[in-house]
Amino acid sequence: MSAGTFLGVILVIGLVLLGAYLSMTAGRLDHLHRRIDSSRLLLDAQLLRRSSVALELASGHLLDPAASLVLASAAHHARTSADLTDDEHALAESDLTAALMAALDPDDLALAKEAPDGPETLEELEAACRRVQLTRRFHNDAVRACRQLRRQRMVRLFGLAGHTPWPEGWEMDDSMPEGLPVR
């Protein structure tokens, strides 16, 4: 085998390996982008569920009237903020968290726990808050992994991300109100 043939074989093997690497990386990147899209949809659904349960709590006569009014207003604003920018939506969701924290002080919780539907509503709220925390964490982990992959030199050099926008995480206050869990 001549030196030219040997170099040709090495070059072909190198190009095949590079092509395989780029193909696998592009597939992984596509998978991460799909995971981000699905986790964002799931997060939106969990945020909607949390605001629905908060509205149920506010309208269920389980809290004092002032706390119910504040909570209902924040929950309504969070539900209707989905059409706003992501920053405004996150701010509305953080405001709902703050309203939940203020409305669910220990005295109000004691009254709500004694009401006929109180414990079930509070348990549902706790579950909704926990799901929001988990889905937001899952979404942000997917965004972090995608960003890390998109920063790699080969991904940038060969434009493997295409025209897909840079993935954005979801930042909001999703703290669990102090009185929850109710168990």
Mind explaining what this structure looks like?
The protein has 183 residues and is mainly α. The protein has one domain (34-183). It has helices spanning 3-59, 65-80, 86-103, 106-114, 118-150, 153-157. The N and C termini lie far apart (77 Å).
Mind sketching the topology for me?
Layout (H helix, E strand, L loop, with lengths): L2 H57 L5 H16 L5 H18 L2 H9 L3 H33 L2 H5 L26
Give a short overview.
The chain is mainly α and 183 residues long. It is built from six helices and no strands. It is rod-shaped and about 90 Å long.
Secondary-structure-based class equals: mainly alpha
Mean pLDDT: 92
Q: Ranges with pLDDT <50 over ≥5 residues?
A: none
Radius of gyration (CA) equals: 24 Å
Strand content: under 5%
Cα separation of the termini: 77 Å
Count of the separate structural domains: 1
**Helix and strand run:** HHHHHH
Please bin the fraction of helical residues.
over 70%
Form type: rod-shaped
Number of helices: 6
Biggest sheet record:
none
- Number-wise, the strands total 0
